[in-house]
Protein: Urease accessory protein UreF
Amino acid sequence: MNTDTITRTATATPTITSTAADPVPPLLRLVWLASPALPIGAFSYSEGLESAVEHGLVRDDASAGEWLSQQLRLLARGDLAAIAQGIAAWRSGDEAALIELVAWLRMSRDGAEARLQSEQMGQSLLAWLRGQPMATPGQLAFLARCCDGPAPHAFVLSLALATIAVSVEQALQTQAFGWAENQVQAALKAVPLGQTAGQRVLQRLAAEIPRAVAEAIATPPARRQLFAPMLSILAARHETQYSRLFRS
Structure:
């Protein structure tokens, strides 16, 4: 059974602190949220990789590994940092931080494909989350008011992870591995790569994830950034690419 406690400050702004009883063990929840089977459509996005292949920047497992390693570093100082801060804000009821986070996540998407990916995956994850005994009605109601439109994926994900009794480090590591697994699967199709080559790339990324997560946790809100001009250019070119397997 869900329980909600809503306290009010002197300015009558609601601050939500909540608990929810979940019969699924925390470790399984983490694996579930990082699973390719989660119905949010992550498999349909290459996040610029397909365009990089088209323009000759990625052509084998070595170049795919280097490309994805650079994307992991970008993820660390951007979305992973945002998710870490979102988890903390949901758990403490810091509404001002959550409102700022939504604004940043929307502003940081500088291309149509990136915005559509964030919105589509966010809405799909939110639909899934509403059917799980994780977030409380009060949290979901605040999310709807805070977003006032399509909720960014990283924002919804931060709420889902905040409800699980695990450390921020564990939450980010599983999400980073889920991202890496999805991107390697995209590389298998787009480059293309064989399964063994794909596992070499995944092994490299798995070894780099702990450092990326540590960087994300240490990044303050004012230092979050997703500045990657070449990635933005490739994403824009992908919109008109003649032959495409992926939506980004």
Observations:
- Residues 1-15 have pLDDT under 50 and may be disordered.
- The beta strands are 2-8, 14-20.
- The first strand starts at residue 2 and ends at 8.
- The radius of gyration is 18 Å.
